[in-house]
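User: tokens in, sequence out, please.
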């Protein structure tokens, strides 16, 4: 079975003369318009892609900077934690010595010996329970005060 060839049945193709070329002209203009629209769309897409690439690059650089800063803060925290541990150990040692000296003084006083206790100078380093600096409140996590 062979099928007959089909011809376009548009109204423009049935009319001979100038109206067929007007339809072709409209079709050609529409094709050009579509091509131009597609070109603009590709240009917008390319521009958006370039903007996203630039933003990704900027964010990667910022991320590297923040990671370096975190590393520096972590190193500083380790240093301060070490110093803090040394100071806590020293505090414990001095507190024990002070308690022992207090006991010796009590023994001397109970025995009736005259004990001359010198005046303690007004030095903030000799008063560890009072900070020589103004109190500074800092926002910290719940685990910041664990020893």
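Assistant: Sequence out:
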């Amino acid at each position: 079975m062979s099928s007959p060839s089909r011809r376009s049945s548009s109204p423009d193709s049935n009319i001979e003369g100038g109206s067929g070329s007007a339809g072709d002209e409209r079709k050609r203009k529409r094709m050009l318009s579509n091509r131009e629209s597609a070109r603009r769309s590709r240009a917008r897409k390319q521009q958006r892609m370039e903007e996203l690439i630039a933003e990704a690059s900027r964010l990667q650089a910022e991320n590297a900077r923040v990671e370096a800063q975190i590393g520096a803060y972590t190193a500083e925290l380790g240093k301060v934690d070490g110093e803090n541990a040394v100071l806590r150990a020293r505090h414990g040692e001095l507190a024990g010595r002070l308690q022992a000296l207090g006991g010796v003084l009590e023994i001397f006083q109970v025995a009736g010996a005259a004990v001359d206790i010198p005046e303690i100078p007004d030095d903030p380093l000799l008063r560890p329970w009072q900070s020589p600096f103004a109190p500074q409140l800092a926002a910290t996590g719940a685990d910041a005060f664990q020893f």
